[in-house]
Amino acid sequence: MSKPEREAAATGTSDGAPGSPPSRPTLPLATDWSLASFDSSPIGMAVTAPAGHLIRVNRAFSSMLGYTLDELGDSDWKSLTHPDDVDASWEMVRRLVDGPSSSGRIEKRYLARDGHVVWADVSTSLLRDGEGKALYLVTHVVDVTARRGAEEERQRAAAEILDLYDNAPCGYHSLGADGTFLRINATELAWLGYAREEIVGKKNITDILTPESVELFRAEFSGFKERGWVKDLLLDMVRRDGSHLHITVNATAIHDADGAYLMSRSTVFEDTLHREATRELQEHRDHLEALVAARTAELRRTAEELSRSNRDLEQFAYVASHDLQQPLRMVASFVERLAEDYRGKLDGDADTYIRIASENARQMQRLIQDLLSFARVGDRGGGFAPTDTSRCLDEALEELQETIARIGAEVSRGPLPTVLGDARQLVTLFRHLVGNALEYHRGVPPLVRIGARREGGEWLFSVEDNGVGIERRYFDRVFRIFQRLHAPAAHIGTGIGLAVCKKIVEGHGGRIWIESEPGQGTTILFTLPDREEGAA
Questions:
Q1: 398 within 8 A of 427, measured Cβ to Cβ
Q2: Is 75 helix (H, G, I), strand (E, B) or coil?
Q3: Radius of gyration of the chain, Cα coordinates, nearest whole angstrom
Q4: By the 8 A CB rule, do 172 and 268 touch?
Q5: pTM score of the predicted model
Q6: What CA–CA distance (Å, rounded) separates 135 from 55?
Q7: Is residue 409 within 8 Å of residue 446, measured between CB atoms?
Q8: At 321, which helix (H) or strand (E)?
Q9: How far, in Å, CA of 533 to CA of 456, rounded?
Q10: Comparing C-alpha atoms, which of 431, 430, 433, 432 is closest to residue 419?
Q11: For labeling, which of 92, 111, 402, 404 is most exposed (least CB within 10 Å)?
Q12: Got the DSSP string for 239-292?
């Protein structure tokens, strides 16, 4: 049947006698103007028979589905409808044909010519003849594919956000202005052992906190509304089975446009492992502190015993050295008298023995004097006081004046500072250092330079000579007591002088070391704290 014949059959109209070719039907109530509006409408429109055949469609409808007008003229709405929406469409048509209503509206899916789905908002009106018989359906079709896509995307996003909220690895809940639960996620519910309907709108936050945490919550909540936040609040919740859940809470206050407090939103972190770790850490810390305290007490006792032992040794060295001086002086005196009275009167061996005895007696006297000096270093007397190191050097050089003149040495110096120290010990320090420089010369007139410069919170002193120098391997050895690098016949030192210097410098809170090359002289450097630093 051709399109005109279908239109005629659908409307019951014909321009000729039975069997003659039907002319194009005229739709009831249609005018040229209404048909023009129908065809040019930007909204898809279709006229269909109650049985479903398309009688007329406009260009907007054909463009929507990608068909030509002629292709749609041989079709019906069922073949254009998505299979899942056919029943709903027939149901609406039956309601219109059988019922009192003359219009209906549904959202349905059409299948476009290329197979893609077109979502449409479909509004349909039923026209009847004078006797109430259904003539045809006029349908307005609005493409809502984009809107439906946006809505579906919004729903997917909302579902994703809800899933993230509900199944997050932390708890979330919202509380009303009075503290009643408005929302709570599945994670927090699982921690607590409650069903959602047992919490939301039923319980206040204080209902599931321990008494101690209720007090803490109320104390924080009093300023929370104005402040607008709370951070890392430690609370204990009570689970449904009565056990406790340790949590850390961070919350944000929500206000209306007028600033009135509405609700709070909280993030909850399960804190049991952290608190257990903190407790264990504190136990380890307490244990360690106890061990440190015990070890400190033990070290203090050891230090006291060592200090007492050092004092005893120093006292012994002092007494022994002091008591040895008198008999040694007697021996040295009588040996000198023997040398004076009997030189040349005995045989040659006797003169040699007397000379050796006299030299060794003098060496022993020097050794005893140095031992006394070493023993006295630990005795501060009246304690440290501001001391002019330039005056200390003057006194040391005065004691060495005879030696300086005898060997023709030249001693120069730069400005020296005032430091906190023991003047007597600093005189001894300079005497030993300059004396060492004078002793170990190379057969040429000794040159000795003393200087000091400030570095950071201390003074760096230097005593430089042009003597024989020292090999690097002996740098540490020379500061040990009784350590000598030369035979007694070559130099008359006792091996105690630099040990005394080290003890004096370290007793003043400084350091001492050597810079030297064999045959290139030696520089001994030492530091002393600056006077202001030491006073602090």
A1: no
A2: coil
A3: 57
A4: yes
A5: 0.40
A6: 11
A7: yes
A8: helix 272-342
A9: 10
A10: 430
A11: 402
A12: -TTS-EEEEEEEEEEEE-TT--EEEEEEEEEE-HHHHHHHHHHHHHHHHHHHHH
Give CA angle at 485 (353, 514), nearest 5°: 145
Torsion of CA 173, 174, 175, 176, to 10 degrees: -160
Distance CA 430, CA 424 (A): 10
- Distance, CA of 25 to CA of 160 (rounded, Å): 55
Please list the pLDDT of the chain residue by residue as tens digits (536 residues).
444 444 444 444 434 333 333 333 445 545 666 778 888 889 999 999 999 999 999 999 999 999 999 889 888 999 999 999 999 999 999 999 988 888 999 999 999 999 999 999 999 999 998 888 999 999 999 999 999 989 989 999 988 988 888 999 999 999 999 999 999 999 999 999 999 999 999 999 999 999 999 999 988 887 888 889 999 899 999 999 999 999 999 999 999 999 899 999 999 998 877 667 777 778 888 888 888 888 888 888 887 877 776 666 666 666 666 666 667 677 777 777 777 777 777 777 777 777 777 767 766 666 666 666 666 665 555 578 999 999 999 999 999 999 899 999 999 999 999 999 999 999 999 999 999 888 877 778 899 999 999 998 899 999 999 888 888 877 777 777 654 444 444 444 455 778 888 999 999 999 999 998 888 889 999 999 987 544 43
Can you tell me which residue has the tokens 């290329």? 114
- Coil vs helix vs strand at 16: coil
Q: Name which of 366, 491, 499 is nearest 439 in CA terms.
A: 491
Dihedral of CA atoms 190, 195, 199, 200 in degrees, nearest 10, equals: 110
Q: Would you list the DSSP string of 185-217?
A: -HHHHHHHT--HHHHTTT-BGGGGB-HHHHHHH
Label residues 318-341 b or e (16+ Cβ within 10 Å = b): beebeebeeebeebbeebeebeee
